[in-house]
Amino acid sequence: MNDEPAPRLRYAMIGGGRDAFIGAVHRHAIALDGQAELAAGALSSTPERARESGRALGIADAHNHASWQALLEAELARPASERVDLVVIVTPTDTHFPIAQAFAEAGFHVVCDKPLTHTSQQAGTLVETVARQATVFGVTYNYTGYPMVRQAREMVRSGALGAIRKVVVEYNQGWLATALEATGNKQASWRTDPARSGIAGALGDIGSHAENLVSSVTGLQIEELVADLGALVTGRALDDDASMLLRFKGGARGVLVASQINAGLENDLRLRVSGENGTLEWRQEEPNRLVHHRREGPTEIFTRASSWLCEAARRAGRIPAGHPEGFIEAFANIYRGVFADIRARKAGTTADPLDADYPKVGDGARGVRFIECAVASSAERRWLPFSG
Amino acid sequence: MNDEPAPRLRYAMIGGGRDAFIGAVHRHAIALDGQAELAAGALSSTPERARESGRALGIADAHNHASWQALLEAELARPASERVDLVVIVTPTDTHFPIAQAFAEAGFHVVCDKPLTHTSQQAGTLVETVARQATVFGVTYNYTGYPMVRQAREMVRSGALGAIRKVVVEYNQGWLATALEATGNKQASWRTDPARSGIAGALGDIGSHAENLVSSVTGLQIEELVADLGALVTGRALDDDASMLLRFKGGARGVLVASQINAGLENDLRLRVSGENGTLEWRQEEPNRLVHHRREGPTEIFTRASSWLCEAARRAGRIPAGHPEGFIEAFANIYRGVFADIRARKAGTTADPLDADYPKVGDGARGVRFIECAVASSAERRWLPFSG
Amino acid sequence: MNDEPAPRLRYAMIGGGRDAFIGAVHRHAIALDGQAELAAGALSSTPERARESGRALGIADAHNHASWQALLEAELARPASERVDLVVIVTPTDTHFPIAQAFAEAGFHVVCDKPLTHTSQQAGTLVETVARQATVFGVTYNYTGYPMVRQAREMVRSGALGAIRKVVVEYNQGWLATALEATGNKQASWRTDPARSGIAGALGDIGSHAENLVSSVTGLQIEELVADLGALVTGRALDDDASMLLRFKGGARGVLVASQINAGLENDLRLRVSGENGTLEWRQEEPNRLVHHRREGPTEIFTRASSWLCEAARRAGRIPAGHPEGFIEAFANIYRGVFADIRARKAGTTADPLDADYPKVGDGARGVRFIECAVASSAERRWLPFSG
Amino acid sequence: MNDEPAPRLRYAMIGGGRDAFIGAVHRHAIALDGQAELAAGALSSTPERARESGRALGIADAHNHASWQALLEAELARPASERVDLVVIVTPTDTHFPIAQAFAEAGFHVVCDKPLTHTSQQAGTLVETVARQATVFGVTYNYTGYPMVRQAREMVRSGALGAIRKVVVEYNQGWLATALEATGNKQASWRTDPARSGIAGALGDIGSHAENLVSSVTGLQIEELVADLGALVTGRALDDDASMLLRFKGGARGVLVASQINAGLENDLRLRVSGENGTLEWRQEEPNRLVHHRREGPTEIFTRASSWLCEAARRAGRIPAGHPEGFIEAFANIYRGVFADIRARKAGTTADPLDADYPKVGDGARGVRFIECAVASSAERRWLPFSG
């Protein structure tokens, strides 16, 4: 199922040092398929910690930097053939834009965490830069890497469900059901802090995943929305609960919920899409199944790696059916797409779209506009138009 | 678990003749516990069909009437001791008010289907009449009859979850995913016809169940809502899809979805209630389980008939744990409550509230106001206050 | 879906007085469809309790007897047209044979609980009597009344799965995980007492249900078996745990487990049947679903009351799809079959086999032979032939 | 959660070239945590294919061998400090013994696929060699790497369930429901061929996983068994279906099923363990959940990565709760254990047993004896003693 190609690509990581959560996930995901190796880093905003973290991960001192600026300078000082193939940005949101913009402007391929930037203006600038520089730019909306999400996308977009009428997406967590940020928890602290996270809390952190999942699977464009954001845990500055009604171009309706105060829930991301002929249901906590309720005939359960899945879903797996793949594998599928694109460009060719299957800078920019629109709708307590 | 008391109560049924759906459900539910017997009827608006239907059900000719007016007149002509104990109204919504009002005014105990009436003014009149006549008046919001719904109610209201912050309720069906009303289907025809169903379609038919479930379980009062109703199947006069955001008194937020165009779904009523300490989940299609996600500690699955359920939940069952009870049993629990109330009044006592546990005329009236508010919010496309 | 026919049949019940469990289930099941009414009884082996129980259930004193012998005598003293249509036997197993034999010999239609008798010789006598008297004789192997079990039966027997190769059936309970019989619990006491229950405990009580489920669904005949019975709770006289390997005529293999010491399990009856083309799975605790794993293509979930079910499954329901039916409804389906057979015979006709669909005396007799064979195999610790 | 230590270990792989299935799984699993790199290989029994496969995986030519003998010779020719740290054997079963024996005898640490060898005599020799050489020897009974299996192990062994009374384990697959070996399928061909697979088919391939899962979780020793093996697909030389009854030392009973002809099933490995106080259930296809039915109180669902799991389960994860981990992660946990042991030995210390948590050569040897015993019991059609 998997032919690990040689030679490995080389990547630099910005952020993701000790105590960070998401950096290790990126490294596991990249390691899984053996296609790339960590070659440089600026792993923390604290120089000493950056150095230590890099050493612990086996980065040679000459490539282990105290800041992203130093890393950029060092890379540019090398001949093009010796530079890293990819820069991975896993810092808190507030620094995404300056870092991503600088590397993209310098012609580097980039993978950046979501949300892409703090403002849609920043995002627009980045889109323009990436287009001008013709570089690869991936955004880790990682849930679209699940094989069964790709199967859902194929079934919706091929018309198997008929015209889509209703979409309900929820991302429910419980980890912020208490004021965890008051206990010194690092993840909670920056995610509830407007200075680091921007104008949105739960909406930005997980609501943007929900938006991307809907857009990716259905291809529908949100036309209008009315949102209600709340900081339900006393004293919290950003929303920890967001719900909204959606209207899509073409007449479909939708509901989106993103909430981090559902005590006892873990990562309950779930999508339901209803069309004229049937309804699809998928849940991240049971990701190897896709449920297809048909208007006529018994409900079907599609499972990962079956021979009757679409090509995109089959390519997204590594092991036989019935052996569960999980979060890291899905995350790795985003990287597979990025790597395919980079390799194709290095080879002077164009990647097969089924291989270069990953969320791009435009998806990231739409996500930022979505956050701005929902925040405004909630503040103004009314329906607002959205230009997807 | 069940001691069938003697003697049986006697009930009259209005509507529910041949080809009707819900009348047979009421009869099964009443029959299940052997507490009452069908003694009189006006089973159809077509006199001949009324007569035939009554005979098929074993109603003696002298008690088998061509119209509800004839039935009322005949009952009143009898000595009080020979009259039926209860009148069950299972006609389409447009006739609920005149029939219910007439019987309540005449001092009869009544069970009426939901939604209670077409307008909140009618509902208000009915509430006043029932209060004045001091009669029993049940509304068949039957889902609150499920034992595990009563367990959820107890867990929420006793404070086990802490302050409630978020409520998500959905009632998703698929049977109106096509223009079934154009094929002569009786159920579809009247439910999509404003003359019979009133100002709301899916909202009235199943959204009102969702509202009642939330109100019953949480005791929260809706303070404001913004709704979006759509007739997503071309040519339909009433909504077949309704979604709304809710704000409750005290700060909790909510989402309510009621939709009949989710092709392939059956009766997917599901409730999720999150409080400070945990989250409850219940689904009508697996009614014997209640899932309790705890903020600390493993998730708990409560099952029907366990000795560790609350008294109200335990009383609502008939057979040991692990033997599923279903829709008819839950429906029968509403009747158990009504019968307990009637028997207590006949005995000149007051029923134990855990026995007389059924939705009353006030619940029905609130349901009608809820429908009116949601329809207005959708038409005006804005948040509206609601006086629960 | 439901046409309640008139007039009602009249039945007598033997056993099932206060504190009995299964008698109330039979009465609920019979009441549900309104086809029959309790007209006579000998509800307890204690005369006083029999009288009280009968009165509480509304049996007229003239039909409320202190013993089954008195009931039989009184019935025979009446003209044939005034006798009950059916005698329901819900006593502990040790008295099944004398009672059933006496009523069958006297020409009464009978429904009897399982296991049918203590010995296969008794069962053989009963089969002979019923054949000679040409009476109706139902055995309440109630799980075969579930609509989805009937759907499974149709799918297996129609050849949709191809030749059957493997059958795994389990009935796991936990209620006897402690020495409940030592606490005075009535149900536990007689079920663990050889004098009342015969030579088998769990095997007889629930293993016989498992055997019947396999035989009913697959039509396969057990050819050989090796069993291992254990009394795993110290001091128990009868098996509380039974497992066995099965070989069927034609080459299929099987496993049967019946155990009452799985602490925390409720009524976990589950069946899995694999054929050349697919595998069916059904669980009693989620009875409205039948899972069909196909060799080629996505797994299918059949749900109760869909239009694409077989005729037998559709006839076995009362309400629309998505509204769960449960244990009582399934039990009532056995009675529907019995009633259809009785009504046909009263009318001098032959019932449609899809209506008269219930386990008969021959099924009960095979169940007793099965128990004897498994007990012997376990005692001799070897494979034994079985003549199904 | 994971601190990738430096420097990487270096491993050689025997087998696992192009078209092999399990070799790629081992490589993914090893890559995931970045602890080791593929440094040498003899990847196929066909020299040319071995060379090509090695190159595709980036093995330098000097370390890329045409046979395992050549690899062994080349390694031994190097100074000890330049040799690989570990030899991974992923060939068909028939060659496990000579390869494993040669490398263990030469002092190499080894990971070998299961079943360990063809005969218990070979296995005994290997156990002796490993003991004498004091090397690390892991057997990839990979399912014991799942965090929730380790949680189950802790709950059983700590006595939380009380004395264990009943164990039911099944490993059901469907991929051999047709004569796939006749179509040229490589996996099917060698697994159904006695020359490559030894005396057992399904029993050896997946039944040995089931045995290991039971032994690992419960610590119980099988004392006696009666097995029934069948080749249910016509013309097959080895069993494709195996069922057996087990008796454990101390009085517990068990059932083990391993079958590859359940058309439509994928990798349905499931374990149920009942003790005096409760019952645990785990399924490989939903590996992030462990269900704990309690005798008293609601059923509990333990999920991966919760803070209330045991230490062994928590260490076996990489990402937060609610983000599913799967087969590769579990497999990687076996390697984590092996690596911890190797690193400790290199450092001259002893590994923390919670880190060096992997199936060892003794587990592999018991698995081979189990296969021999079950094959004999089936052939002789009787209970046989087993010395676990």
From TrEMBL, chains A, B, C, D:
InterPro entries named among the record's database cross-references: Gfo/Idh/MocA-like_OxRdtase_N (IPR000683), Gfo/Idh/MocA_oxidoreduct (IPR051317), GFO_IDH_MocA-like_dom (IPR055170), NAD(P)-bd_dom_sf (IPR036291)
Name of protein: Predicted dehydrogenase
Domain of life: Bacteria
Pfam families linked: GFO_IDH_MocA, GFO_IDH_MocA_C3
Domain Gfo/Idh/MocA-like oxidoreductase N-terminal: 9-140
Domain GFO/IDH/MocA-like oxidoreductase: 149-281
